[in-house]
């Protein structure tokens, strides 16, 4: 933990400057409140170490999160949770200090005309500047320390360490999760959640990582903070375990899409709605229900990985399973899992690459021409071209139902 000092980093962004000054004035010099901002001299960044963001179950926001009639601005939505304040102020400072590959301004955003409600955003710089994907040929590929990994990030890219307080005296502390900037951001606040990077874990979903992702969604009071995971072959570009988290101030189709149960206990549901059919897991909040969900999801992703089936996962606040609608209350957390065709590398010439956010209905478009001409039908065709053939999809569905049923007995 690091004490806040009275030194305020020099930043150009007037909005951020004001925010930093207010934070500094709010805490006395001898305060124990942790600062997530870098000192002004870059030579001191490594010496400062990584601050801890310690949270407990009482900070997980379960009720009262709703979309207003007009979409809120990312940083202008009161009240922000402690997590939102820490993440957004630190992220914006790193942007001002030039630690990203490009400076992300306001992105042109439109909801494509049609029944689905696809949200398209023009992000030219990400299409041009993002790191080239690693040479990956298997969903089960081992970690290679010689390739780029998150032990090689520059000082200052890590915002904080996410630490969960033990639920009871004597309970084991959960693994450390480093929250670091994605240097090629999709949207403002785009971060990576990386579990103990020194362990050299390959990009295969583990329960501790998923728990941190779901709880990060619950730590935010913004309805548009989402978390996701891309498997190898599912457009993951780095083979080192990580999840994505980012803010998008727009509703997405998967939040309230209707579903049907696939098993008598209602533990696994199917979203048939566009943009892509997926498997739905739902929890009303932390506790035994969340732990059970984490176990089910990871058993499902283990099955897919072991059978060389690429997949993507998306975590969002949403409505309970059933006959829901876009106006449904965000009463819990939806975890949506898609099995899909393997895709290694970047497909040149496509309007967008299909990964976790595209399957959920958020389309980061690479060029102005495509952004101006993209239709709902063309976007859906591109997404559905990445899905499994119907016969294989039915086999996977039956297998996952069996996996969930067997492990729940």
Automatic annotation (TrEMBL):
Top enzyme category: transferase
Chaperone in keyword set: no
Location of this chain's protein in the cell: Cytoplasm
Pfam family, one: GDPGP1_N
Main location: cytoplasm
GO terms of biological process kind: glucose metabolic process
Catalyses which reaction(s): GDP-alpha-D-glucose + phosphate = alpha-D-glucose 1-phosphate + GDP + H(+)
Domain GDPGP1-like C-terminal stretches: 271-404
EC number: 2.7.7.78
All residue ranges annotated as the GDPGP1-like N-terminal domain in the record: 82-246
Matches recorded under InterPro entries: GDPGP (IPR026506), GDPGP1_C (IPR058865), GDPGP1_N (IPR058866)
Coiled-coil intervals, chain numbering: none
GO cellular component, as recorded: cytoplasm
This protein's UniProt keywords: Cytoplasm, Guanine-nucleotide releasing factor, Hydrolase, Nucleotide-binding, Nucleotidyltransferase, Transferase
Tree of life domain: Eukaryota
Molecular function via GO: GDP-D-glucose phosphorylase activity; guanyl-nucleotide exchange factor activity; hydrolase activity; nucleotide binding
Function, as annotated: Specific and highly efficient GDP-D-glucose phosphorylase regulating the levels of GDP-D-glucose in cells.
Family the entry assigns: Belongs to the GDPGP1 family.
PANTHER family in the record: GDP-D-GLUCOSE PHOSPHORYLASE 1
Protein name, entry field: GDP-D-glucose phosphorylase 1
Lineage: Eukaryota, Metazoa, Chordata, Craniata, Vertebrata
Gene that encodes the chain: GDPGP1
């Amino acid at each position: 933990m690091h004490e806040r000092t009275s030194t305020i980093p020099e930043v150009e962004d007037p909005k951020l400057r004001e925010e930093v000054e207010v934070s500094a004035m709010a805490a006395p010099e001898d305060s124990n409140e942790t600062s997530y901002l870098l000192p002004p001299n870059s030579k001191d960044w490594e010496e400062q170490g990584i601050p801890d963001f310690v949270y407990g179950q009482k900070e997980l926001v379960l009720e009262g999160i709703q979309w207003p009639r007009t979409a809120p601005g990312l940083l202008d939505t009161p009240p922000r949770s402690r997590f939102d304040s820490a993440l957004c102020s630190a992220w914006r400072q790193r942007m001002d200090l030039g630690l990203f590959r490009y400076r992300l301004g306001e992105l042109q955003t439109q909801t494509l005309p049609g029944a689905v409600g696809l949200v398209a955003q023009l992000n030219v710089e990400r299409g041009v500047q993002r790191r080239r994907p690693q040479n990956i040929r298997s969903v089960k590929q081992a970690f290679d320390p010689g390739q780029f990994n998150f032990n090689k990030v520059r000082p200052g890219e890590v915002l904080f360490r996410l630490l969960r307080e033990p639920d009871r005296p004597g309970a084991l502390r959960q693994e450390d999760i480093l929250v670091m900037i994605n240097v090629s951001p999709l949207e403002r606040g785009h971060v990576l959640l990386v579990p103990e990077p020194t362990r050299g874990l390959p990009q295969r979903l583990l329960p501790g990582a998923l728990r941190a992702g779901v709880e990060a969604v619950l730590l935010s009071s913004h309805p548009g903070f989402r978390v996701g995971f891309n498997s190898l072959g599912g457009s993951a570009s780095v083979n080192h375990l990580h999840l994505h988290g980012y803010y998008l101030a727009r509703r997405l189709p998967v939040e309230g899409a209707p579903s049907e149960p696939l098993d008598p206990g209602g533990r696994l549901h199917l979203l048939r709605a566009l943009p892509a059919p997926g498997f739905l897991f739902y929890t009303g909040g932390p506790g035994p229900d969340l732990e059970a969900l984490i176990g089910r999801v990871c058993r499902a992703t283990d099955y897919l990985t072991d059978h060389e089936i690429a997949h993507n996962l998306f975590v969002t606040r949403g409505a309970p399973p059933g006959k829901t609608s876009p106006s449904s209350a965000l009463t819990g957390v939806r975890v949506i899992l898609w099995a899909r065709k393997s895709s290694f590398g970047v497909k040149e010439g496509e309007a967008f690459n299909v990964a976790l956010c595209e399957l959920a209905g958020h389309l980061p478009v690479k060029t102005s021409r495509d952004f101006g001409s993209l239709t709902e039908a063309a976007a859906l065709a591109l997404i559905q071209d990445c899905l499994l053939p119907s016969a294989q999809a039915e086999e996977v569905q039956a297998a996952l139902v069996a996996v969930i049923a067997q492990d729940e007995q």
